[in-house]
Specification:
The chain is an alpha+beta fold and 106 residues long. It is 33% helix and 24% strand. A four-stranded antiparallel sheet has the order 2-3-1-4. The mean pLDDT is 92.
């Protein structure tokens, strides 16, 4: 599973935001199911930042977000992300794609 979080950060706040983003990356990368991640800044618009993370599966990502240290250290920064869908399934040749469905039998 791929997670893409984009952020708009005024240039004067860029270095502080970078340090905060690196700390968030460290917390996330310590969680079970974390595969890889990248921090980036747009080459044409230095106010646009991105954090991408890859997880074993959606369950690993959701469990990571529900952990106490992530709620304390990561969620405040993630709340600054551009409001858009951020979780993507990784599509390989022949991959069976997720189908929209009700997740509970309620």
């Amino acid at each position: 599973m791929l997670v893409v979080n984009r952020f708009r950060v005024p240039e004067p706040e860029g270095e502080r935001f970078r340090a905060d983003l690196e700390a968030v990356y460290d917390v996330l990368s310590a969680r079970a199911g974390f595969v890889a991640g990248t921090i980036g800044r747009n080459v044409d618009d230095p106010t646009l930042w991105v954090l991408t993370t890859t997880w074993d599966n959606v369950g690993a990502y959701r469990r990571a977000l529900s952990s106490y240290d992530v709620k304390v250290e990561v969620v405040p920064l993630l709340s600054r992300a551009v409001d858009e869908p951020s979780a993507f399934e990784i599509v390989g040749r022949g991959t069976v794609l997720n189908t929209p469905s009700t997740r509970s039998l309620g």
